[in-house]
Amino acid sequence: MTRQEKSGGGARRGGKREDRAPRGPSQRQLRVGEEMRHALSRIIARDELSDPDLAHQAVTVTAVDVSPDLRNAIAYVVPFGVAVEGAVDTATLVKALNRASAFFRGQLSREVDLRMAPTIRFRLDESFQQANRIEALLHDPVVARDLGPRAEAGGAKAEGEEAGETAPEGTNGDDDGAA
């Protein structure tokens, strides 16, 4: 066994890290992301933006992902009232938010106590659309039929009979009535 293998692979010295699972965000990244989410929500609610595409626009910041070095952040947004399809042009909204990212960075530097304010990019949060699509699929009659209770043939237990139940005294458990 080499010294590099004994020390755990030595990723800095060119060792491979294939055996390790990819890590999720650290506690610090999660904490900073949540603080930035709250600060961005306050900044947007103040409606100080001069961009006509953002004026009087209600936006919900659903999450903020922060890079490990805390220099970059992706803010996931969704227009308020997204349930009404087509009520807001989301592409225009996200482009306008990205145009105003320098303004948001300056405001964040005043609201969040960090050494350096991160560069912010905005993206549309598509999780709500995916959830609506899955919900519609589950309510589709074809899928609902497959999700309903199954009538198993041959060797199936009688309705109301569960795995741990025993037959009443004096019977052998058959349903043919012979005792």
Keywords:
179 residues; alpha+beta; GMP Synthetase, Chain A, domain 3; 3-stranded mixed beta sheet; flat
Q: How would you characterize the overall build of this protein?
A:
By secondary structure, this protein is an alpha+beta fold. It has a domain at 24-135: GMP Synthetase, Chain A, domain 3 (2-Layer Sandwich), CATH 3.30.300. The protein is 36% helix and 12% strand. It has helices at 3-6, 27-46, 90-99, 101-111, 127-138, 141-147, and strands at 59-66, 72-79, 119-124. The protein has a 3-stranded mixed β-sheet. Strand 1 and strand 2 form a beta hairpin. The protein is flat. The chain starts with a helix and ends in a 32-residue tail after the last helix.
Strand content: 5-15%
Shape: flat
CATH class of the domain at 24-135: Alpha Beta
Main beta sheet: 3 strands, mixed
Strand order of the largest sheet: 1-2-3
SSE run: HHEEHHEHH
Helix-strand makeup class? alpha+beta
Q: Fraction of residues in helices?
A: 25-40%
